[in-house]
Amino acid sequence: MSPGKRRKRRVLLASAAVGALLTSCAGAGGPGSGGKNSINVLMVNNPQMITLQELTAEHFTAETGIDVHFTVLPENEVRDKIGQDFANQSGQYDVATISNYETPIYARNKWLEPLDPYLAEDTDYAVDDILEPIQTSLTGDDGQVYAQPYYGESSFLMYRTDVFEEHGLTMPERPTWTEVAELAAAVDAAEADMKGICLRGLPGWGEVIAPLTTVVNTHGGTWFDADWEPRLNAPEFVEATEFYVDLVREHGESGAAQSGYAECLNNMVQGNTAMWYDATAGAGSLEADNSPVRGDIGYAAAPVEETDSSGWLYTWAWGIQQASDKPDKAWEFISWASSAEFEELVGETLGWENAPAGKRSSTFEHPDYQEAASAFYEVTRDAISEADPVSPGVQERPAPGVQFVGIPEFSDLGTLVSQEISAAIAGQQSVQDALDASQDMAESATERYRER
């Protein structure tokens, strides 16, 4: 039976209740006992992945006969474990969740199986349906594709439409950061118990550095120029960072230096802030049935200054370890888990608000998804489609990435720099001092690139 026919049959099972998970197929403590007709999958423990785990035995294994043994870990732990296993090419795990940050790096190190042959042969998978920026971000230096997305996201501005209407404020469809700062000040002046905006300040390359780097990009700055010269204390980087720090200190949430995605989401849900710039994924929580602000949120494009767009680009994707001795079975799992049919299975079984969206054009055109995500699907689609993972700023870059720099050193460097930025947000040092220290760290971390 072809992969397409198998998927069509699985969709017909969507109306059935989700059965008890077979523990022999989906353990969380480590890879299963193996066997010729099984694969081991290592993945992050976010809600969308848990949904996949719950549906696999009844729908994928029942149709293919392939047992899937899951190891499910928190993000930091799973990144470490994947890095170790793939670097050693032990073959313990056939498939793992990797992001568009790791994919080109792993491909360069020959840790991943190239997927082009599978994509060419599995026509039912409809690879042309994958949004171009997502696919580009999962492509290696050699032009081959090395992972396929489970879901994707960008960033945009979320705001309280009822508060804006009450005080006669208007949010432009494509605001500038200057306009956002003015609106934040206006809300602060009008609402005693509500701050103008929430922005991440929590240390971490995936926390404060993510939104800050998009602000840097659109203000004309960059972490490195085309020759790998660090530019962290260049005028454009300083201007953007001072803007960000001043905005969150003057009109942002209390305790901003320790606020990340979760804290800002909570502030928005609890009505403590009028605006929030962050991941498009946040909209699902704001529009959930139990959200007290459901229906009171508007969505606008990521603010800009010198660029046409500025949203970041991120995807959790599936990669096959090159050392796997079951790449064909691994691809069959990926083909199912990343398919439009799987999204429909989730939508019909658990509700379209739970579908792992943000990767396929057809999802944004699906009437059921449009109904469930009516408040934000168009802005989300545009944000992802307009993201440029290769050239997100105003000058040439030496490595891909919108909110990160696609080199192995960035995870450590970004974390160290984030600590300096958070200290500036906390008022413990000036932005200039923070970036001077960051410049020194960047020069040390990337010296080998300039010696080439």
UniProtKB/TrEMBL annotation:
PROSITE patterns: PROKAR_LIPOPROTEIN. CDD domains: PBP2_TMBP_like. Keywords: Signal. Residues 1-28 form the signal peptide. It holds the Pfam family SBP_bac_1. This is Sugar ABC transporter substrate-binding protein. It comes from Streptomyces sedi.
